[in-house]
Design a protein that fits this description.
The structure holds 2 protein chains of 2 kinds.
Chain A: H1 15-20, E1 31-32, E2 37-38, H2 42-46, H3 55-66, H4 73-80, H5 88-92, H6 99-112, H7 118-130, E3 156-159, H8 161-167, H9 169-182, E4 186-187, H10 197-201, H11 205-218, E5 225-227, H12 230-238, E6 244-245, H13 246-255, E7 260-263, E8 272-276, H14 279-282, H15 293-303, E9 307-308, H16 327-330, H17 332-348, E10 354-356, H18 359-366, E11 375-377, H19 378-385, E12 386-389
Parallel strand pairs in A: 3-4, 3-5, 5-6, 8-9, 8-10, 10-11
Antiparallel strand pairs in A: 1-2, 7-12
Helix pairs in contact in A: 3-6, 8-9, 9-13, 9-19, 13-15
Chain B: H1 3-8, E1 16-17, H2 20-23, E2 40-42, H3 47-60, E3 64-67, E4 84-87, E5 94-98, E6 103-106, H4 112-119, E7 124-125, H5 138-143, E8 161-167, E9 173-175, H6 197-200, E10 209-216, E11 218-219, E12 223-231, H7 234-246, E13 253-259, H8 261-271, E14 283-291, H9 293-308, E15 313-314, H10 316-328, H11 334-340, E16 344-352, H12 357-370, E17 375-382, E18 387-395, H13 397-418, E19 421-422, H14 430-434, H15 437-450
Parallel strand pairs in B: 2-4, 3-4
Antiparallel strand pairs in B: 1-2, 5-6, 6-10, 7-11, 8-9, 8-10, 12-14, 12-15, 13-14, 13-17, 16-18, 16-19, 17-18
Helix pairs in contact in B: 8-10
The chains are: A alpha/beta, B alpha+beta.
């Protein structure tokens, strides 16, 4: 037994909330069709139903630690590192409690005590040494761009993010090409530097900050920065870094007729698709809700002539697919079960493809159990099924 | 082998927890009742597992506190005696929606939100939905006899229960109402002999653990509308509501809520700061009508005409700025979120005769004056007969925990002296229930017959505190 001390300074900012939580159980299990809530916590569904893995469980744990209660911190760490940090518990809380922020602070406290689980430590090591959370060779970070040439004087700098660069190269490659068609002079880094988002999610706050600083220092003075990954965008956004979502640029280009699309005769698009909304792009906790990414994605798909079959009651409260918060690395079997739920729902709703604006979600879902339908990133989907033309065509 | 391990072994892997970090979230509910410390939490997935756990707990003399969402205000789920918490949220299947018999049969862990969503395609609903309904479980609400919204049309949660299946302390099961007859199913509550269903409603897990619930179905109303009536004083409002109940004008009123002078001022001045406060009603009654459009319009006209005899006047502005939105946009969470938005809130629920309303509200005002360290509010719900009242005390749990416990405990005794009756007793009212000598003696005998080892929820209703 490791006794908890009473410091836990990173939990102190949340002290008021810890004593305010009404234990209403909304963060555990709620169904409210009028509000688009149909279940809340992917971890409780697919990992463990113990309430210690829920929003109210994390609040109770944090409060107990602040009150000096002796808890086995190794066990606390096991629970805290089973959260996807998707932020749905915060979205549904009727009185604005911050369980996701608390679990992140708790992770940081545990990580600083050297109590992060081994799998989380491995992710940290991978990011610090290879600049991606999977441990893929850093030298291959720009392999996605083989055959493409970055513009020598770019007006848009594309940061693919680790997930796209390492796990979903077709998406970032398609993004670079599409942005070029739209009329941007696109450049990209030859060597990837992880922004630190995976480290922030795992509680390695200082390392995450250093990564972000290193990345921003490496950026050229271009007028626009564009990102694919929602988690990267949220992490940079939290530091005030101005950046655009590629989804946003696509949406604007379609709306302004700077991108024309026509179905490919040799690979016609499916007429009915399902979408996986990125938690980072859609849930308020991550700071990007104003982007309204779920609407943008649906409007892009509508412009492509695809019908979206909705599998979740509301994007804002959709359950995590298991890609976020280190779930896929720390608890891969649970993460696959989460993905399987979404794939199964898409299948049941008659979708012929599942599409996400997040390369992290898309690559995770593509690895899901029993995937009977193709999973695309939005750029990859356009490239696969549409002929495109820009304003000069 | 410890008793914890012995009971854990009865369940599939991953459904029992002993680590303190895993039991933290099962220590309490929303109330000011002191938390307990369970030694073990188990989450069975079906009724036979519940029976096995109860039989073992009785044999091993381990206290058992059953629990749904734990969002109640009376501490019934708080495991004062330690022991075992039986988390019933895993029994979450809706077993039968029988629109011919007009009954839905479900397991106790089903949330009201999930149930309403399942019933909607059938054009059906249920009569009572608690303010925490999106997350609150039906089993918890029946076991604790949750106030729900209360209802002029449907009265109370207990009145909506057609029958139950209950696991007893020895692990055996009984079915109540018509379902007690083998194969008959749930279609009548008062069948065969005495109403055993009622024995377990509001018993807070002291007599058995509910494993199936049959609720009456009601067609979704074709038309709904809200309206508010303002009264110059509490006695006039009470007299009007009494007359409304006696004249049986409430068949198409699904919900009725009363707001005291402070609430009326708060809502109306919040919307229109330039209003003259002296012109505002001191009591507001909000009514949520539901039924065929013609019937609703007819009843509303009759009710508003009757109100006029007591000085009551329609108050469309209150409906516009508050009540309509509360009933339509915040169907479940309307009051709860409002109450808890700024701080924790202690709630004492009581039932009382309609004519007791002025005394209840005047007493609430005196507490407000006597204990200014807290913010106070009161709320009333119109039922078919009598009223429910809630005394709300807003407090800072970090700074005022012992103080609020002491003050609110004092309120329960004073409410009894006013003629109020404990509602959702749990542990909050346990001392007062214990003073109801004849009632409590009978309850104790029943308890001894059904739970001779006294393992079921010791401390609730003042029964078998350890």
């Amino acid at each position: 037994m490791i006794s908890a001390d009473t410091a836990f300074a990173r939990l102190r900012p949340y002290e008021h909330a810890l004593y305010h939580c009404a234990t209403c159980n909304y963060c555990v299990s709620a169904v409210w069709p009028q509000r688009g809530i149909d279940g809340v916590c992917a971890t409780l569904r697919s990992h463990s139903p113990a309430a210690s893995h829920s929003g109210k469980g994390y609040l109770a744990t944090a409060r107990a630690l602040l009150e000096g209660e002796a808890l086995d911190l190794t066990t606390v760490a096991e629970r805290a590192y089973a959260c996807t940090t998707c932020g749905n518990c915060e979205s549904v809380c009727p009185i604005g409690m911050p369980p996701t922020a608390v679990v992140k602070a708790l992770r940081t406290e545990l990580a600083e005590r050297g109590l992060a689980p081994a799998a989380a430590m491995a992710v940290r090591e991978h990011v610090l040494t290879r600049q991606n959370p999977w441990g893929a060779a850093a030298a291959h970070a720009a392999d996605w761009s083989l055959g493409l040439s970055p513009h020598p004087q770019p007006n848009l700098w594309l940061l693919p993010g680790c997930a796209a660069a390492q796990r979903h190269p077709a998406e970032v490659r398609a993004a670079a090409q599409l942005l070029g068609v739209i009329g941007f002079d696109v450049g990209w880094p030859e060597h990837g530097i992880c922004c630190g988002a995976p480290l922030a999610a795992l509680g390695f706050a200082h390392d995450a900050d250093r990564q972000r600083t290193a990345l921003t220092a490496s950026l050229p003075a271009t007028p626009m920065l564009a990102l694919l990954g929602g988690e990267c965008l949220a992490h940079l956004h939290a530091d005030g870094q101005p950046a655009q979502s590629v989804l946003q640029l696509l949406h604007t280009a379609l709306h302004d007729d700077r991108l024309a699309v026509a179905p490919r005769g040799d690979a016609p698009p499916p007429s009915v698709v399902a979408v996986q909304d990125s938690c980072h792009l859609s849930k308020p906790h991550h700071g990007l809700a104003d982007l309204d990414a779920p609407r943008l994605l649906r409007e892009v798909l509508a412009a492509l002539g695809c019908q979206v079959t909705e599998t979740a009651a509301a994007p804002r409260h959709a359950l995590c697919c298991g890609a976020a918060g280190g779930m896929a690395q720390l608890h891969p079997a649970s993460a696959r079960r989460m993905a399987a739920e979404h794939l199964g729902a898409a299948d049941r709703h008659g979708a012929a493809a599942l599409i996400s604006a997040s390369p992290l979600c898309a690559s995770h879902l593509a690895d899901g159990i029993g995937a009977r339908l193709p999973v695309y990133g939005i750029c990859e989907f356009i490239a696969a099924h549409f002929a495109v033309a820009g304003p000069d065509a | 082998m410890s008793w914890q391990d012995e009971i854990s072994a009865l369940l599939p892997t991953g459904l029992a927890w002993q680590e303190p970090v895993d039991t933290l979230a099962y220590r309490r509910d929303t109330s000011i009742v002191a938390p307990g410390r369970p030694d073990l939490v188990v989450r069975p997935l079906d009724a036979p597992d519940v029976g096995r756990v109860l039989a073992a707990a009785t044999r091993l003399n381990v206290p058992v506190y059953s629990r749904g969402a734990g969002s109640m205000y009376a501490g019934g789920v708080n495991p004062h005696a330690g022991g075992l918490v039986l988390d019933l949220s895993g029994l979450d299947r809706i077993l039968d929606i029988d629109t011919v018999k007009g009954v839905v049969v479900l397991e106790p862990g089903v949330t009201f939100g999930a149930l309403l969503a399942a019933l909607e395609p059938f054009g059906q609903t249920i009569g009572i939905v608690p303010s925490t309904g999106a997350a609150a479980t039906v089993g918890g609400a029946v076991s604790a006899h949750a106030l729900g919204t209360g209802s002029p049309r449907f009265q109370s949660m207990g009145d909506q229960v057609a029958g139950l299946e209950v696991a007893l302390a020895d692990g055996s099961f009984i079915r109540t109402g018509s379902a007690a007859a083998h194969g008959a199913g749930f279609f009548q509550r008062y069948a065969i002999g005495p109403d055993l269903t009622g024995l377990f409603i509001g018993a807070d897990g002291t007599l058995g653990v509910i494993t199936k619930i049959a609720l009456w179905l009601h067609p979704l109303p074709a038309h709904r509308e809200t309206a508010c009536l303002g009264f110059a004083d509490y006695p006039s409002a009470a007299a009007f509501m009494g007359e409304l109940q006696r004249k049986a004008l409430l068949d198409n009123v699904w919900y009725g809520a009363g707001y005291d002078a402070m609430a009326v001022r708060g809502r109306l001045l919040g919307a229109d700061p330039d209003l003259d406060p002296t012109t505002l009603p001191r009591f507001m009654l909000g009514l949520d009508y539901g039924g065929e459009a013609d019937a609703v319009r007819r009843d509303r006209a009759r009710i508003e005409a009757l109100a006029g005899h007591y000085g009551g006047r329609p108050q469309p502005r209150f409906d516009e700025v508050y009540f309509h939105n509360l009933r339509r946009d915040e169907l479940y969470w309307y009051s709860y979120a409002g109450y808890f938005a700024k701080s924790r809130c202690a709630m004492v629920m009581a039932s009382f005769a309609t004519e007791t309303l002025p005394a209840f509200l005047d007493r609430a005002q005196r507490w407000r004056e006597q204990h200014p360290q807290f913010t106070w509010a009161s709320a009333t719900v119109l039922c078919r007969r009598g009223l429910h009242g809630a005394l709300l005390t807003f407090y800072d749990e970090q700074q005022q925990w012992p103080d609020v416990q002491k003050v609110v405990a004092g309120c329960t005794g004073e409410l009894m002296a006013l003629g109020c009756v404990p509602y959702k007793s749990g542990k909050l009212w346990a001392d007062q229930v214990g003073k109801l000598t004849e009632y409590h003696r009978a309850l104790t005998r029943i308890k001894a017959a059904l739970d001779p080892a006294g393992v079921l929820a010791p401390g609730n209703l003042g029964l078998g505190a350890r």
